[in-house]
Amino acid sequence: MSAARRFEVRVQKHPDRVDSVEVVDLDDLEVVLLWDLEAREAAHRAEALRADLRRLDADAFLARWSDA
Fold this sequence. Notes:
Elements: H1 3-6, E1 7-12, E2 18-25, E3 30-38, H2 39-55, H3 58-65
Antiparallel strand pairs: 1-2, 2-3
């Protein structure tokens, strides 16, 4: 299954400039990956995640990002 059909990337902005980047499983709406990053780094991470969502299958996507 395509990663884009299984997962969604969400960015939660916080006033302290540390943002949360979440990867949510669309089947059960559970957060499967989470990072708290400086705002600029969070934006870059979200962009990279979304690019991989478009090009990888679900298992490859999780394998790539699980240790990041």
